[in-house]
Amino acid sequence: MVFADLLEETFLSLSSNKSRSGLTVLGIVIGIASVITMVSIGQGSTKEIENSIQSLGSNLLIVTPGSQKSYGSMVRESSGSANTLTLNDVEAIKSEISNLKTVAPIISTRKQVLYKGNNTNTSIYGIDSAYQGIKSLETSLGNFITQTQIDKVSKVAVLGPTTRDALFGTDVNPIGMKIKISGTEFTVMGVTVSKGGSGMNNSDDMIYIPITVAKHYYTGNNSVSSINIEVSSANKMDKAQEDITNLLLARHKIESADSADFSIVNQADVMETMSSISGTLTLLLGAIAGISLLVGGIGIMNMMLTTVTERTREIGLRKSLGAKSSDISNQFLLESISLTFLGGVIGILLGLIASFLVNKFGGTTTVVTLPSILLAFFVSAGIGIAFGYYPAKRASTLNPIEALRYE
Amino acid sequence: MIRCKNLIKTYKTGDIETNVLKGVSFEIKKGEFVAIIGPSGSGKSTLMHVLGALDNPTSGEYFLNGKNMFKLSDNELAKIRSERIGFVFQSFNLLSRATVLRNVTLPLVYDNDVKKEDRNKLVEKALISAGLDKDRWHHLSSQLSGGQMQRVAIARALVNNPDLILADEPTGNLDSKTGDIVLETFQRLNKDYGHTIVLITHERYVAEHADRVIELRDGVIISDGSSSKSLLKNK
Lengths: 407, 235
Description:
The complex is a heterodimer.
Chain A: H1 3-15, H2 18-54, E1 60-65, H3 87-96, E2 100-115, E3 118-127, H4 130-134, E4 139-142, H5 147-151, E5 156-159, H6 161-168, E6 178-181, E7 184-192, E8 206-210, H7 211-219, E9 226-231, H8 237-251, E10 262-266, H9 267-310, H10 312-320, H11 325-361, H12 370-396, H13 400-405
Parallel strand pairs in A: 3-8, 5-7
Antiparallel strand pairs in A: 1-9, 1-10, 2-3, 2-6, 2-9, 4-7, 5-8, 6-7
Helix pairs in contact in A: 1-11, 2-9, 2-11, 2-12, 3-8, 9-11, 9-12, 11-12
Chain B: E1 2-13, E2 16-28, E3 33-37, H1 44-51, E4 59-64, E5 67-68, H2 74-84, E6 85-88, H3 100-109, H4 116-130, H5 146-158, E7 164-168, H6 176-193, E8 197-201, H7 204-207, E9 212-217, E10 220-226, H8 228-234
Parallel strand pairs in B: 3-8, 3-9, 6-7, 7-8
Antiparallel strand pairs in B: 1-2, 1-4, 4-5, 9-10
Helix pairs in contact in B: 3-4, 3-5, 4-5, 5-6
């Protein structure tokens, strides 16, 4: 029996029971489509997390202060709130640690900001000239804070786009306008390009001012809120982290790293943690969708078993006309593979459309990758073989005499 | 053509052995039209299964056109059925959703020796031999009358030019008038085309259409001779 005949027989028998074939295919379609959509949502969130961490800068170490945990005291203040890191530490890091590209101290605080009748509460970042490079910040309007302005303690401010919208309204050019941050008047000199972050570190809802100004007007001492350090290359991250830890321990006269009054966060670690979380998420979503695929596969098997019983006489006839057992099993196997193949193709298309719609209207980034499509495709073909094999085997082993007698 | 010697077929159900054929011997020459007659339980269906290579005999010799048919594997039996035997069944056994042409093509599909381009010619020849009007050829077989269906089944049995056509109660589902037409078709195939036909029936009237009648009872042959009709004809 040649393949073209096999295909013709398959087409004849599947098309002769269209509604049943259609419903069986639907099971596979739903399974495959949900696998593709779910995995695309999972991978989309992975990518979103990676992007937002990447947008913090690359090869970044962030040093934040934390109060020393001493014996007898159960209280530990939240990191960043303590005053244990100073500008002197920053200078020491700059001069004594090698392989660092930039060291950017930040003095951050939250203040009420006022422009005429509008006011908003937002993060104020006192920064030095290195910060712009580390965060790859760009201005859409005006200019960023210059070294001269930092040195001269100029009361100038660069706004994030969200803050600009809150104070001035969208599409207003605020350059040269005066705003009041906690009573002190600043001149707006730029607006940054939107980076689209969200949550606590939304770089769009922020006001940047010179670090010298922040120190003079808001802290009044030498302390800094955090130090962003860019290491020259990824493979020197661990060494730099260790060196900085040792330096700061020595400067703060602390013997053990366990009781350090600061903490260093390695960007790569954060990324790894987040990726593993979203990887688990993807797996979970995929597994849920996979169950529906399995149910679809069982549907195929159920249909094929019914078909074999229904067509017992036909099988007997085919055998009496000279069909070998393998001809019979090939025919039934091809029928189930055709069903899953068809379901797979439709399911992939439907999954692509669904993930596109989720991306567009659902507010979640979705990423459809070629491996997930290939996986879905081969899984569906595999289901056809796996769940079609038993019914096909059963059909092929029927005794022709008994099959012909079957009523 | 067909040579059977001491065919024995025993079925085992648990510990009980049932002897269905108890030593059947006969010969059928090429071009003969033979009816095998007997009441139900006489073993005629089992004999047909053995002759039709659907089953192996328990013991005994069976030569079909010189080929020893003893203890063949399932695949070898399938090959014999595909190349040497054409079946006509009581209940036609056509694929109802397929056209007449597709039904008649089916045996060729399972015969890898027949080239695809030769198929149509063979199918047309068989349908003409079986006497089915050409305007029915593209109909679905479910749209035909009983007599037409049986002629499609006969064409299907003819299409691979078998050594032997086996008809199992071919008129059982037909009224007497269409039954007669079908029996005449067999006679014509036998006389005009020289096909060897073995017809299995329990009706004497049907058996009388053959040239020779073998009567079977309880697994043994009780008579074997020319049918009365052919005796009449010969006189």
